[in-house]
Amino acid sequence: MMLAVQDLEVRYGGITAVRGVSIEVAEGETVLLVGANGAGKSSLINAVIGLVPASRGSVRFAGADISAMSCDGRARAGMGYSPEGRRVFATMSVADNVLSGACGRGGAAQREAWSWLCGLFPILQERADQPAGQLSGGQQQIVALARAMSSFPKLLLLDEPFLGLAPVWIAQISEAIRHMQKRGTTILVTEQMARPALSLATRGYVLRSGEIRRSGTASEIRDVALAEEYL
Question: What is the pTM of this model?
Answer without folding.
Answer: 0.89
